[in-house]
Write a structure and sequence with these properties.
Largest sheet: 10 strands, mixed
Strand order of the largest sheet: 10-12-11-13-14-19-18-17-15-16
CATH class of the largest domain: Alpha Beta
Strand content: 25-35%
Order of helices and strands: EEEHEEEEHEHEHEEHEEHEHEEEEEH
CATH architecture of the largest domain: 3-Layer(aba) Sandwich
Shape: globular
CATH topology of the largest domain: Rossmann fold
CATH superfamily of the largest domain: Class I glutamine amidotransferase (GATase) domain
Number of strands: 19
Structural class: alpha/beta
Length: about 375
């Protein structure tokens, strides 16, 4: 058989030359471990707490989640970047609807296989270009399975992403020793929506979808800075909602004392993620650092009241110490993997919060009903 080829339609495969080779980077861990890979994103060095997420999708939402502030994120799913990144869009209330905040919060991104080419009908740019805009480096070609196994064995580690030939500083800075909430909270008071009841939402590093979920249920929301003195204000509200946020809750005495006063005055207090830790500390409990945290969209949680198990979206490194909860509080949800507290409730008063993310962006959406349960207390 004779085959005639039209030379104008032949696809040429270009083999990268040495001039096209990518810059080599290293991920250096505080225990002395080194992982070498190739650069994408911004041409900078960085440092932070190295954590992993087992989510398969949702890197635009994850990277803009303020709870990841000052962390180097390891993605366990091997292929990252294949659907690119969209431009931010605002909804009718002026809230970003396709990201969780207005910027990337991670300090660096570690992946096994970065996809240079992306394909999605809403994509406007590559993940690498997006990282460059926010001055965040990425490193690919890393054995993320080995790296994740190390973190699971030793616990979360501090690390640096540096150029392969860099003469880097051998000291490591722990971001959890600083008030990360103050870095990510709003600095102004803003009002959203309309409704017969008003929620004072304390922004400790809030995901935008929390705000969207409250508004769509017919509430007016006053979003305020994390350290706003809501016990001494002329603003009228019916409840305090504590948002998610980064870092060690034990450093936030300023907000805890305000919550304690509100509870003493009988004001309903509810919350999500960091919110459950702050509420619990205000009630008299303590928190502790998890060995490697819960960061994924597949964490199973059991409702202790019903026995039902839900898959949940999570992003936290600290948890409430169940043994220190006062007798008038009960565990509402529990993590099915390690038994840690995932939700607490006062037995008679309107104080309740969950550790996971019922706003679920990216999914699953199984626990979105928790917003209705929390708002019933108001």
């Amino acid at each position: 058989m004779n085959i005639n080829l039209d030379s104008s339609k032949i696809i040429k495969i270009i083999t990268p030359t040495s001039s096209m080779e990518k810059q080599k980077l290293k991920l250096i861990l505080e225990d002395g471990s080194e992982f070498e890979g190739e650069a994408f994103g911004a041409d900078v060095e960085t440092e932070g707490e190295v954590v992993f997420s087992t989510g398969m999708v949702g890197y635009p939402e994850s990277l803009t989640d303020p709870s990841f502030e000052d962390q180097i994120l390891v993605c366990t799913f091997p292929l990252i970047g294949n659907y690119g990144v969209d431009h931010p869009e605002l909804d009718e209330n002026g809230i970003i609807k396709n990201f969780e905040s207005n910027r990337i919060h991670i300090k660096g991104l570690v992946v096994s296989d970065y996809s240079e080419k992306f394909n999605h009908y809403e994509a406007k740019k590559s993940l690498s270009d997006w990282l460059k805009e926010h001055n965040v480096p990425g490193i690919s070609g890393i054995d993320t399975r080995a790296l994740t196994k190390k973190i699971r064995t030793t616990g979360s580690l501090l690390g640096k992403i540096v150029k392969a030939d860099s003469n880097y500083d051998k000291t490591f800075k722990d971001p959890n020793k600083t008030n990360l909430v103050a870095k990510v909270s709003t600095t102004e008071i803003q009002t959203y929506g309309e409704g017969k009841k008003t929620i004072l939402l304390l922004d400790c590093g809030m995901k935008e979808n929390i705000l969207r979920n409250i508004i769509k249920r017919g509430y007016k929301v006053i979003k305020a800075p994390w350290n706003f003195d809501f016990n001494n204000t002329d603003l009228k509200f019916d409840a305090v909602f504590l948002s998610n946020g980064p870092g060690d809750p034990a450093l936030l005495d300023e907000i805890v004392e305000k919550i304690r006063i509100a509870m003493k005055n009988g004001i309903p207090v509810v919350g999500i993620c960091l919110g459950v830790q702050l509420l619990s500390i205000a009630a008299g409990a303590k928190t502790y650092k998890l060995k490697f945290g819960h960061r994924s969209q597949n964490q199973p949680c059991i409702n202790e009241e019903t026995g039902n198990c839900f898959l949940t979206s999570q992003n936290h490194g600290y948890a409430v110490d169940e043994a220190t909860l006062p007798e008038d509080y009960k565990v509402w949800f529990r993590n099915a993997n390690d038994g840690s507290v995932e939700g607490v409730k006062h037995k008679t008063k309107p104080y309740a919060a969950v550790q996971f993310h019922p706003e679920s962006d990216p999914g699953p959406t199984d626990t979105n009903y928790i917003f209705d349960e929390l708002l019933k207390l108001i």
